[in-house]
Specification:
Helix 1 (19-31) packs across helix 9 and helix 5 (93-100) crosses helix 8. By secondary structure, this protein is of the alpha/beta class. The chain has 2 domains: 8-184, Flavin prenyltransferase-like (Rossmann fold); 193-289 and 301-405, CoaB-like (Rossmann fold). The mean pLDDT is 95. Helix content is 35%, strand content 25%. The chain is built from 16 helices and 19 strands. Bound molecules: cytidine-5'-triphosphate. Cytidine-5'-triphosphate (CTP) binds next to helix 12, strand 16 and helix 14.
Length: 406
Amino acid sequence: MNDLAGKHIVLGLSGGIACYKSAELCRLLTKAGATVQVVMSEAATRFITPMTMQALSNRPVVTSQWDAREPNHMPHINLGREADALLIAPASANLMARLVQGRADDLLTLMCLARPLERVALLLAPAMNREMWAHPATQRNVSQLQADGAVVFPVGQGDQACGEVGDGRMLEPQELLDLLVAHFQPKVLAGHRVLVTAGPTFEAIDPVRGITNHSSGKMGFAVARAAREAGAEVTLVAGPVHLPTPWGVRRLNVQSALDMQAVVQAEVEHATVFVAAAAVADWRPATAYDQKIKKDGSGQPPVLSFVENPDILAGVAASERAQRGELFCVGFAAESHDLEAHAQAKRARKGVPLLVGNIGPATFGQDDNALLLVDEHGCRAVPHGPKLALARQLVAEIARRLGRVA
Ligand code: CTP
């Protein structure tokens, strides 16, 4: 997706072994549609060459405030003026210490100091040894940078180049891209707590078998990500799917509809928005056998009987908080035909103000979808597009209904 189309990003590199990840980051930024101007400190050029970064950004790299290519001889001013954001990755301990003091003794620090504070965000991706990261001086600097208006991304955890294991690794390029994309999304759900269900459920027959459905969970995961990007605190209750958890989202894995119901009931009392995107199995086997059902040699298959699962969404929508308007409930409807009529009937049956209809068989497992938003007044089609783009539109719609304007 061209999530950064039209954005101009200044990608600053200070010295650190994590510079090798910045090459991939640069590639991801341009792939996402951004134009990228790379600025490197002298120390950064010891770890990766400007030529590499020039080839990936398709622009000459700036390394010095004395760069004579700028007609006005003021690269530090021009760089900040032209940018939509300054992303410093890696941000070394030394660079952060210098930024805290407002120093301007090389191009990177000059540029950060000279940026138009109100318009151009400064985003820092720290990278350092775990002792350096944990040091009170560094932690003090992080707090001060945040107080001064910079966004300091978290650090990763794991093996470090120095051989130690701990906190301080720079986040992976894809994580940094996701955080940058999120940064540009309007914070229309800030202060809200959103609970999302996603994926199929798995109803056990015995320890090795069960029934489930083709839901991939992609739409629900996209809703969780979009809500997080919009500034909400998000909890995602996920059935059995192999999808990465969106950045900053709290994920609780479940298997069966009953598990999902129990977790939702425990979590929903803290939520202000509930989005039920899961494809919950309608029935479960009446008996889940403790041991594998064996063939008995008669040639007759076992006879299974089923019981209906509870309707999680209808239960939540009927709760006192939802009825009092403290919890906004959104349902999904996966239909195979007559979408509008089925979606309207389902919305009324479940008692939710907003229901999102889609054609189930056509969308399961796909990255794209098309939605039909149904409420008491009628319906609105959200045309075909990537699930994340649709999820962002749904989040904007929810925010509008909560009185938030983008
Ligand atoms: N849902 C739920 N609990 C269930 C069944 C469905 O919370 N036991 C929610 C889904 O997450 C979705 C909405 O209800 O938001 C509609 O789900 P869907 O499977 O389309 O509809 P059903 O209620 O199962 O109705 P039908 O099978 O008749 O289409």
